[in-house]
Amino acid sequence: MAANHTGSCLCGAVRFVTRGPLRGVVYCHCSQCRRQTGHYYAATNVADADIAIEGADNVSWYAASAFARRGFCRTCGSALFWKPIDNDYVSVMAGAFDRPSGLKGESHIFVADKGDYYEIGDGLPQFERSSPTIDVADG
């Protein structure tokens, strides 16, 4: 039986359940992620068919680029999702999952854009822009 994982925003207006295995956590240090969260994103991926969102009417979607949009709770402002326009998956912020999540770090992307106030020292692979297996917006 595939594992289910649950999670929510800070206020609980948005809750979700995922089915099946989750990708390792990718840490994105791009300027958009840093500006939205104040630090960097830590997210896993879920196929659209494998996530159920309760309170989806409480999710506001911001078109951050022609490539993707970002979903957050309209009540408490929690960053929750990153959704490419033309793909059948959604990235879910790792910190929104209930514990234990079983998630583990996989890599860092856009390290060329990382904040100048911290160092990355966890030994995970680092990519100047993106890894060969992660689909992201150009430029």
SSE inventory with pairings:
Layout: E1 4-8, E2 15-19, E3 25-28, H1 31-37, E4 41-47, E5 51-54, E6 59-62, E7 68-73, E8 79-84, E9 89-93, E10 105-109
First-residue to last-residue Cα separation = 41 Å
**Helix content class:** under 10%
What low-confidence regions span 5 or more consecutive residues with pLDDT below 50? none
How do the SSEs run, as a string of H and E?
EEEHEEEEEEE
- Please state roughly what percent of the residues sit in beta strands, choosing from under 5%, 5-15%, 15-25%, 25-35%, 35-45% or over 45%: 35-45%
Structural class: mainly beta
Lateral arrangement of strands in the main beta sheet? 6-7-8-9-4-3-10
The shape, in one word, is: globular
Instruction: Write down the Rg.
Output: 14 Å
Number of helices: 1
Overall mean pLDDT stands at 93
Sheet of most strands: 7 strands, mixed
Q: What is the number of strand segments?
A: 10
Structural notes for this entry:
The protein is mainly beta and 139 residues long. It contains one helix and ten strands; from the N terminus they run βββαβββββββ. The chain has one helix at residues 31-37; strands at 4-8, 15-19, 25-28, 41-47, 51-54, 59-62, 68-73, 79-84, 89-93, 105-109. The strands form two sheets. Strands 6-7-8-9-4-3-10 form a seven-stranded mixed β-sheet. Strands 1-2-5 form a three-stranded antiparallel β-sheet, with no helix packed on it. Strand 7 (68-73) and strand 8 (79-84) form a beta hairpin. The model has no long low-confidence stretch (mean pLDDT 93).
